[in-house]
Amino acid sequence: xxSTFPQNARSSRIxxxxxxxxxxxxxxxxxxxxxxxxxxxxxxxxxNIDPHLADHMIENAISxxxxxxxxxxxxxxxxxxxxxxMATEESSVVAAVCNxxxxxxxxxxxxxxxxSTNMIxxxxxxxxSDPENARIRILERKAEIAEICDACDPMLxxxxxxxxxxxxxxxxxxxxxxVITHIxxxxxxxMGANAVNTMAERLAPQIEGWGQGKVYLRILSNLADRxxxxxxxxxxxxxxxxxxxxxxxxxAYQFAAAxxxxxxxxxxxxxxxxxxxxLATGNDTRAVEAGAHTYAARNGRYTSLTHWEADKDGNLTxxxxxxxxxxxxGGATKIHPTAxxxxxxLGVSTASELAxxxxxVGLAQNFGAMKALAxxxxxxxxxxxxxxxxxxxxxxxxxxVAALAAILVEKKQVRQDVAVAELAKLRxxx
Length: 430
Ligand code: MEV
Prior knowledge:
hydroxymethylglutaryl-CoA reductase (NADH) activity, HMG_CoA_Rdtase_sub-bd_dom_sf, 10 strands, four-stranded antiparallel sheet, alpha+beta, HMG_CoA_Rdtase_NAD(P)-bd_sf, EC 1.1.1.88, about 50% helix, binds (R)-mevalonate, NAD, 3-hydroxy-3-methylglutaryl-coenzyme A Reductase, Chain A, domain 2
């Protein structure tokens, strides 16, 4: 079968690649891909982590990619003012939080809470001939299970965490019934994946014995619905531009609540804020995103992560609730110097505080998107910032960037072809 890809003379089976230094690997990649010197130099530039630290974080590292970190201002959470670092490549995201938070600041900002810091790990048992009995046999061993789990992580127990509860479910699958054990573990200031995965793996032989079946998977669930972060806020109707704006925003929410096509985009906007803080603090964006979207579908139909209403005084109130498994210790949070610095900016001392601030940012982000969508549309605000990117993309430098961006916005034509022509004019070449 002929391939439409250009054929490469070299093989991708590079012996010992994983043992090389990042610089040696980059040289291999340069020669494999036929990179020019400027491209290789670009990949060789260290961002704000040393390539050798990157090499400890992941396999086969050759480079790092820097994403801007912006600060969301005006954020008040539970009476405390915070500056929130957000790592994002998308324009308008940080500005939207600043504006949204400003409009509820005088009314008290965000009130937040957290259900617990409990995580769930699952142990899958198949082939039990008597799944109902197997379930009860496993439940009878709760005290032993608690002991085995806690023995895996004495430090966690010392810090007040450890095993909390046991659940055993029977699920019907294409392969017949499965007995699914959930261990519920308080992982405190850790995101907890390592702690609960170790416990689940350690328990597997016992579960096989008690359940009389075969254990396959032993892994945490990202549907961390015991670790829910909540935030709410009230926006005075006059601060948001009146009843018409409020009603348009409530209609926008009702659209998302009723329609998965809209809910997907509505929640994507929420995650613009949430993932940006999760990333800035070195936490696992995919874990949080998986948990959020699954939670949004928990009742069988995908819906909005937020809820919006008018209160008895006619003000707009919003609330968000979602699983937020983030930590302060372990993983990239602990070793990435910029993540550490971002945590210092936030001034948080527990993982729950961090999760609660993140929930507030998600709510603010949603407010900003809904307000723009229900009034002027998002292109107006988005395009002014996007115009800068287009200007840079066509080669504008220094003062040319702002000047060219202003022309594109003025013409309401933020497009690459227009930017090329306008840049030439600016340079007297048009
Ligand atoms: C764009 O990144 C996010 C929005 O589409 C969110 C929304 O539609 O609610 C503006």
